[in-house]
């Protein structure tokens, strides 16, 4: 443009701008622009204020409030297109979601924050967000990815000379190395972080690093050092009013005391943690703490159950139910399906301890159902184990084998050799009870093979002790099987092998049980002096370690041996000692044991009236404590005593009572026992039709449940009846097939009964040669 023209244009423009009309229009434009600027500025100030409020809520641990506030700030930052504000708020929001246990959501939000910070070339912000992404990967248990991301964050923090950020990232790297089993490196890096934070006077982050150092020591099983560092962290977290961290530290102090087996201290700190978590509405942490308290109470209940402390079991079980119902509400609210399954399992265990097996089964089946839906195999395995305890008490051995097979599938899938060996032992035990001895022996042999495959050094210390005793348990089952088979020399060999192993394990409780079992084998071999010697040794150890239930076990065996020797005074003295222990501990179960021992002594003496009195007292205890399975056993014993005393009417009445309970318990084995008891009583009364009716009912159940041992026992009864009726062909038809089964099962008493009836039947139909041959077989048994 030419200079003259340029000058005219500028002059014209100035005149236009400053003309009255132009000035008026321009004023409007300026005012609008200023208004927009002021509005924008006000909105930013509002967003900044909300952001600061969210940051304060975050620092105090009120994460739910912080999330709401950050969301409000983020909305405004987006409306005014403040990318720096958007990036920073997304970063903090992701960090808060991570600490609220919404880890995947946190990661998604943090990735958005990272993209914005990289776009606007905010290197310090990029380092901060990478640090938080690393923390999210750590929370998701992706440790290698966490470490890689944290290393990237550290490089940027150092590049931009962000010392505060460097300390935070080093602290997180240290903790990650701890969980990667590099404790020395973890401590070294954590100490670097601590020095930076102490130099900067950054107490907020210092508390986190102290807490993480405590975690490193806890991972090393150095619990005293862990507690020392946790307590330092607790003091500072309280000083800076970080309630979330305070709650977390209190929880982990509780965990550490639990690992030191200091139950009361653990519960105290869990309760303190719960108060804080409830205050700040940290629902996920509340749920975790509630479950830890429940687990602690379950441990107490289990120990009380082992030691027969009935009143404590009831008190603790009711506490478990109360806490579990509270935890269940939280788990459902948070959609924590795994925890929901665990809580149902805890409720099932509590009801089992209280003797309400029906409710316990419903709850445990709910736990199994949820566990199967979410493929939580460990939870399913544990719930199946709890269910097995109930079915074992009810005598549902076929159901037990089904549960065992499923547990074995899970253990094999998880390559858990310890659990595989454990379940194979359970299968062995159940087949032994069912009289399927070959299957039992095969399962035990497989268990011994699995036990040899276990690398004990790689197991946690508590599991190591258990793994070492697995062969002892398996050999014990083989011992029992050979006792059932009447092969006492083989049983003695297994018993001695067990004792040899256990004496090197420094487990006195286990040694007591093994010695009592060894005494039992000597008892079967009628070597009473040796039986008494080893049982008295077991009694001495039990008293030394103050284990009352084991002391009772040894005394019961001594009483039994003395009774067989007709040393009734000594037998009664042992029974009186059991009764004294029961009274001292106020333990009705042990008292019932003592009354049962007294009953056995008086039965052996032929003093049936006394035996009845003691069994009735025992029955009253089981009825009072609502132990239906034991009530059934007591009624069954009482029926047998009435029969021995000649009071067949009372024997029938009591057997019918036991049958009602067996049916209520859905115990097929119990129903068969009661039916056979009734059958035998009617047989002795000469009421053969009634006797046949009850025997056939028993046979139907044995067929249905594949209880071969029960079928053989019922067949002996039926052949006795037909023999008495002179229906010898029916005797042969019933007894001959079952004789083969009895031999297969190595059921010597039943084999003898069937041989006797067959010999009589063949002789009576004129087949004297066959009858004589069968008598020969009988003589060789």
Describe this structure in words.
The chain has 37 helices and no strands. By secondary structure, it is mainly alpha-helical. Helix 18 (377-394) runs antiparallel to helix 19 and helix 33 (688-705) packs antiparallel against helix 34 (708-725). The chain is elongated, with a radius of gyration of 38 Å.
pLDDT average, as an integer? 88
Share of helix among residues?
Answer: over 70%
Described by strand count, sense and barrel closure, the largest sheet is:
none
Number of strands: 0
**Shape from CA axes?**
elongated
Structural class by SSE content: mainly alpha
Q: How much is the radius of gyration in Å?
A: 38 Å
C-alpha termini separation:
133 Å
Number of helices: 37
Residue share in β-strands: under 5%
Sequence stretches where pLDDT stays below 50 over 5 or more residues: 1-25
Secondary-structure map with pairings?
Blueprint: H1 3-17, H2 20-60, H3 63-79, H4 83-99, H5 103-119, H6 123-139, H7 143-159, H8 163-179, H9 183-200, H10 203-219, H11 223-239, H12 243-259, H13 263-279, H14 283-306, H15 310-333, H16 337-353, H17 357-373, H18 377-394, H19 397-413, H20 417-433, H21 437-453, H22 461-484, H23 488-502, H24 508-524, H25 528-544, H26 548-564, H27 568-585, H28 588-605, H29 608-624, H30 628-645, H31 648-664, H32 668-684, H33 688-705, H34 708-725, H35 728-745, H36 748-764, H37 768-780
Helix pairs in contact: 2-3, 2-4, 3-4, 4-5, 4-6, 5-6, 6-7, 6-8, 7-8, 8-9, 8-10, 9-10, 10-11, 10-12, 11-12, 12-13, 12-14, 13-14, 14-15, 14-16, 15-16, 16-17, 16-18, 17-18, 18-19, 19-20, 20-21, 20-22, 21-22, 22-23, 22-24, 23-24, 24-25, 24-26, 25-26, 26-27, 26-28, 27-28, 28-29, 29-30, ...
């Amino acid at each position: 443009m030419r200079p003259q023209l340029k000058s005219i244009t500028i002059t014209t423009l100035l005149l236009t701008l400053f003309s009255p009309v132009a000035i008026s229009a321009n004023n409007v434009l300026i005012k609008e622009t200023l208004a927009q600027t002021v509005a924008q500025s006000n909105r930013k100030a509002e967003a900044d204020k909300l952001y600061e409020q969210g940051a304060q809520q975050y620092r105090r641990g009120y994460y739910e409030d912080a999330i709401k506030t950050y969301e409000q700030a983020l909305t405004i930052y987006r409306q005014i297109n403040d990318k720096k504000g958007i990036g920073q708020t997304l970063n903090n929001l992701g960090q808060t979601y991570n600490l609220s246990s919404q880890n995947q959501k946190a990661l998604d939000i943090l990735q958005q924050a990272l993209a914005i910070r990289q776009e606007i070339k905010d290197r310090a912000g990029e380092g901060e967000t990478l640090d938080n992404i690393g923390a999210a990967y750590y929370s998701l248990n992706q440790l290698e990815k966490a470490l890689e991301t944290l290393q990237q964050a550290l490089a940027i923090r150092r590049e931009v000379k962000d010392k505060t950020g460097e300390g935070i990232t080093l602290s997180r790297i240290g903790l990650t190395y701890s969980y990667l089993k590099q404790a020395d490196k973890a401590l070294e890096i954590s100490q670097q972080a601590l020095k930076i934070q102490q130099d900067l006077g950054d107490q907020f982050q210092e508390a986190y690093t102290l807490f993480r150092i405590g975690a490193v020591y806890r991972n090393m099983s150095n619990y005293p050092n862990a507690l020392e560092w946790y307590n330092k962290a607790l003091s500072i977290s309280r000083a800076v009013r970080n309630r979330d961290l305070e709650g977390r530290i209190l929880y982990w102090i509780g965990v550490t005391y639990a690992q030191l087996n200091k139950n009361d201290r653990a519960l105290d700190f869990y309760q303190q943690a719960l108060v804080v978590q409830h205050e700040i509405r940290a629902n996920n942490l509340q749920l975790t703490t509630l479950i830890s308290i429940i687990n602690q109470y379950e441990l107490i209940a289990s120990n009380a159950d082992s030691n027969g402390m009935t009143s404590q079991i009831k008190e603790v079980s009711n506490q478990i139910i109360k806490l579990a119902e509270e935890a269940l509400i939280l788990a459902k609210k948070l959609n924590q399906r795994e925890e929901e399954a665990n809580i149902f399992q805890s409720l099932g265990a509590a009801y089992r301890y209280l003797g309400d097996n029906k409710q316990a089964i419903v709850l445990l089946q709910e736990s199994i159902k949820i566990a199967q839906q979410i493929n939580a195999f460990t939870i399913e395995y544990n719930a199946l184990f709890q269910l097995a305890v109930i079915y074992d008490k009810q005598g549902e051995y076929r159901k037990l084998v089904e549960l065992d097979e499923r547990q074995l599938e899970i253990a094999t899938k998880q390559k858990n050799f310890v659990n595989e060996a454990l379940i194979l032992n359970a299968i062995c035990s159940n087949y032994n009870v069912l009289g399927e001895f070959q299957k039992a022996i095969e399962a035990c042999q497989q268990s011994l093979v699995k036990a040899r495959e276990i690398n004990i050094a790689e197991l946690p210390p508590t599991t190591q002790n258990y793994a070492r005793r697995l062969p002892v348990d398996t050999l014990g089952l083989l011992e029992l099987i050979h006792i059932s088979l009447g092969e006492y020399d083989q049983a003695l060999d297994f018993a001695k092998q067990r004792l040899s192993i256990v004496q090197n394990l420094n487990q006195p409780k286990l040694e007591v049980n093994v010695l009592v079992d060894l005494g039992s084998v000597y008892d079967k071999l009628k070597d009473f002096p040796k039986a008494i010697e080893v049982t008295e040794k077991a009694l001495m150890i039990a008293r030394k370690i103050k284990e009352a239930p084991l002391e009772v076990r040894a005394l019961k065996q001594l009483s039994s041996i003395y009774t067989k020797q007709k040393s009734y005074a000594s037998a009664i003295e042992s029974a009186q000692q059991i009764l004294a222990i029961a009274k001292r501990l106020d333990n009705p179960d042990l008292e019932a044991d003592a009354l049962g021992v007294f009953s056995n002594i008086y039965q052996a003496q032929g003093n049936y009236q006394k035996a009845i009195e003691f069994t009735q007292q025992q029955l009253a205890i089981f009825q009072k404590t609502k132990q239906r399975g034991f009530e059934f056993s007591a009624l069954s014993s009482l029926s047998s005593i009435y029969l021995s005393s000649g009071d067949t009417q009372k024997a029938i009445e009591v057997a019918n009572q036991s049958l009602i309970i067996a049916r209520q318990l859905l115990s097929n084995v119990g129903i068969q026992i009661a039916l056979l008891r009734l059958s035998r009583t009617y047989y002795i009364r000469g009421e053969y039709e009634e006797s046949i009716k009850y025997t056939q009912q028993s046979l139907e159940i044995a067929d249905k449940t594949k209880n071969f041992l029960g079928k053989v026992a019922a067949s002996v009864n039926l052949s006795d009846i037909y023999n008495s009726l002179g229906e010898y062909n029916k005797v042969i038809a019933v007894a001959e097939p079952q004789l083969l089964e009895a031999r297969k099962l190595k059921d010597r008493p039943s084999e003898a009964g069937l041989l006797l009836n067959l010999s009589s039947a063949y002789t009576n139909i004129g087949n004297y040669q066959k009858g004589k041959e069968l008598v020969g077989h009988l003589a060789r048994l």
